[in-house]
Structure formats: structure tokens, C-alpha cells
Write a structure and sequence with these properties.
Layout (H helix, E strand, L loop, with lengths): L15 H7 L6 E6 L5 E6 L2
Antiparallel strand pairs: 1-2
Length: 47
């Protein structure tokens, strides 16, 4: 498990290990969803 801190204005960092595995860049769009079990899911797409 990898953890990150939530900073002022609710910002956080996507850890480098995860960025490399899912191939995101600074222009990527993060899509947030809460599934039927109440868990947060993220999807990344290109801008």
C-alpha cells in the first residue's frame, strides 16, 4: 500500500510508482467515482 498526504486546498500527489504503471502525465484528467460499496475509484484519461 502507498499513502499520500492531503495538503491545503485538498491537493495530493500521485506517487511515482503508480504514475509509471498507469502512464499518466500532467495533462491527464482524473475521474472520481464512488462505487456501490462506498469505495472511491479513480480513472485517468488523456486530455
Amino acid at each position: 500500500m502507498i499513502t499520500t498526504k492531503l495538503y491545503n486546498r485538498y491537493q495530493t500527489v500521485i506517487p511515482s510508482e503508480i504514475r509509471k504503471k498507469i502512464d499518466v502525465n500532467p495533462d491527464s484528467i482524473v475521474e472520481w467515482k464512488i462505487n456501490e460499496k462506498g469505495k472511491v475509484e479513480l480513472d485517468f484519461r488523456k486530455k
